[in-house]
Amino acid sequence: MSEESRKMAKLAVEALEDKKAEDIKVIDISNVSVIADYFIIAGGNNSSQIQALCDNVEEKLGRAGFPARQTEGYETANWVLLDFGDVIVHVFDKENRLLYDLERIWRDGVQIPVEEL
């Protein structure tokens, strides 16, 4: 896991916190998958907030030189995936977060307290 991916994860969390994301979780998946180093999972209250959260993450990481490689689900905004390569950000509404339960699916990863990034 690189210092760069840790920096990306920290910036993403800060961007989510700026827009009042709920229940932000950071999962280090570097030892269980090759797709990324970190999954960041957060919640929003409605589609407008979810889009604002995603916009802020993209803007903050983009300004730092980490443009999103791919974005999925932005239009419907019930589960948006932002792929930054080593960091993948998932922003859910309450219903879909419970339904997909990524924290359980990726429980082999290590949850990192946000303040330890």
Automatic annotation (TrEMBL):
GO molecular function: ribosomal large subunit binding
A Pfam family: RsfS
Coiled-coil residue spans: none
Keyword Repressor (UniProt): yes
UniProt keyword terms in alphabetical order: Cytoplasm, Repressor, Translation regulation
Cellular component terms (Gene Ontology): cytoplasm
GO annotation, biological process: cytosolic ribosome assembly; negative regulation of ribosome biogenesis; negative regulation of translation
Protein's cellular compartments: Cytoplasm
Gene3D superfamilies: Beta Polymerase, domain 2 (3.30.460.10)
SUPFAM superfamilies: Nucleotidyltransferase
Family the UniProt entry places it in: Belongs to the Iojap/RsfS family.
Function (record text): Functions as a ribosomal silencing factor. Interacts with ribosomal protein uL14 (rplN), blocking formation of intersubunit bridge B8. Prevents association of the 30S and 50S ribosomal subunits and the formation of functional ribosomes, thus repressing translation.
Subunit text: Interacts with ribosomal protein uL14 (rplN).
Name of protein: Ribosomal silencing factor RsfS
Species this protein is from: Waltera acetigignens
Gene: rsfS
